[in-house]
Each structure stands twice: as C-alpha cells, then as structure tokens.
Amino acid sequence: MQELERDGRISNAALASAVGLSPSACLRRVQELERSGLIKGYRAVLDRSRLGGAITIFVMVGLNAHLSKDARSFEAAMAQADEVRECHNITGSVEYLLRVEVADLEAYKTFHADTLGVLPQVASITSHISLGSSKDLRG
Prior knowledge:
Blueprint: H1 2-6, H2 12-19, H3 23-36, H4 48-51, E1 55-63, H5 68-80, E2 84-89, E3 96-102, H6 105-116, E4 122-129
Antiparallel strand pairs: 1-3, 1-4, 2-3
Helix pairs in contact: 2-3
C-alpha cells in the first residue's frame, strides 16, 4: 500500500518486486483493492502555482445553526466553488475547515465576499494564509 501511495504510476512489475510478490499475484491484489474500494482512484498532482492557484488559504467557517439542512446547504455551495479544494466538517469552535486555492489576494477577497459572505448559514469566517508547506502527502 505504501508503494502505491507514494507512486500510483509504478508499474506492476516494479510494485511486485518491491513488495515481494509475483507480478500476477500483485496485479490480482491491486485489482481486489480497487474493487473493494480501498483504492479510491488515481490522480495527477498538479503544480498549482503554475496554474494560477498560487495562494493557499485555510478557512475556518462557523455556521449560524447546527441543523443538518444548514450543513447540507453549506456543503453543496462549497462543492460548487472552484476555489475550494477541500471541505472538512470538524469538531471544535467552528463547523468547517476549507482549503482554498486562489491566484492572489484579490481573488480571495472576491471568494470571501461573493461566495462565503452571501451564504445565510455562515456566521463566522476566519482565514489563515499559508506561507508554505514543509510536508504535504496529498496525492
């Protein structure tokens, strides 16, 4: 599993060698992991700074009420927002933690005002601008 997590494009032969299995046994195991849903998919990791997503902002969002309809409405709005790369329902003083990627602060200001700021269920917004990431294992 660690080999696939580190390199989802590893060849079956190289993976089999790394984990000490025959290529056919390795392929069967990977296919079973895919069928069972343990492997949810494969993706390309893009350099967002080269695509115009140069700033990462972690946004903590508190809702006005703790009703499931409010949470569903908020999550639906975040699913439609291209700037939102991740939306996590969390415990603590607020209900959501977002990872937002934008080209610049002006783009974030627009997202803050025109997307988050107009949602009736949003009570509070706290933004934390990332200065860099020393470790990021997302694939």
